[in-house]
Amino acid sequence: MRTLWLADHLLVSERGHHVGYNGFIADSARRTGLDVQILCARKCNVEVPGGFRMRRIFRKDLRNDPPRQLSRSRLALGILEVIAKRRFRYDLARGIMPADIGRDDIIFAEMLAPRNLLGWLGWLKSFPKQHEPALVLHLGYAAERFKANAELPRLLSELKRSRKLERARFVSDSDLLREKYQTILQHPVSQLPHVVSRRVSDCYKPPGRPPHFVCLGNARQEKGFAEVLTAIDILNGDGQAPNAQFTLQSSDPDAISAAALANFHSATAGPVSVITRALDEESYLQLLKNSDVLLLPYHLEKYSDRTSGVFCEAVTSGKPVITTRGSFLGLEVAREGTGWLVEDRNPDSVVHAIRRAISELEPVAARCAELMPRYKSMFHPDTFVSQLLELADEKR
Length: 396
Fold this sequence. Notes:
The chain is of the alpha/beta class. The chain has helices spanning 18-32, 74-95, 114-126, 144-147, 151-161, 175-185, 225-237, 255-262, 281-290, 300-303, 309-316, 328-336, 347-378, 381-393; strands at residues 3-7, 35-41, 53-58, 106-112, 134-139, 168-172, 189-191, 212-215, 245-249, 272-275, 293-296, 321-324, 339-342.
């Protein structure tokens, strides 16, 4: 049976989208008739639902999460980069042997930094000729890191001369990033969509009154969480508090978000709920369904050209959003009329957008409902798997 190998070196725990993302793809691939194996971190303490085989082969990426005392030293970070690169190459060489894998198999390697990309390309270089599987390499964010890597062009040239590069496919989930990576690699880069649960489209409901504004996901500085808290405090403190409800998922906050929560004056206000526990899938989907507007004032520094899983869930379930002007998300919202735009890191702008959303909710929500079928298809796991198969089988 043809096997799809989902390789996620960052799959360690419930944190982030990793468990769900791999689960959605694996479930769809199995229904397509593929066998599925998941390659994850050695210390992974979760199982991807569905009884899929999981190989725990990757050691912790020390450069991705450096100790705090080393994170401010350029020399220390450089040393960690070298160590992380060597460990990753070793883990690939020992974790996936030629006898394990067939030429018809597909490896989808996720969220790669330059050191991970070099590791996979080196693995392909050393693999027996004419036995290489199709290797689909999902390039992570921050394209400038790839441009600055001097080793990458040399390795790509070697693989091209040996014709092994024909077995590699490069992908991104953002059309803006796809264009950047194509320029950097001087090689075709395709776009594969982000995926969300097949159940997300069942979370649609017409907007209610008072409207329910919701923050979903872990509380992170780059997601504008502190600006949302400040905006709600402004709304509740200016004597003209809006007729609206707010629910903020704030589990596992980073340091900046935790400090903002500690100073959040509206935490005990009647129309404000702060959820500090991690949500299981059922609770998360119920909160998504109960929402009317999702708050996504993400920072431009991080989200100028990248997508967001919460954004994909919003448009798939027909929810308007408040997001940042000029971001990848903001460009889509401006083009389709599915929400309101705010200025980067500007709580007053968020206040203004919330007031506009309250008065303009019905027509914008109707536009979101109209676009739901398109987005459901775009971010559906079956769409991803069918496009992945087409890409892997494409003749080069």
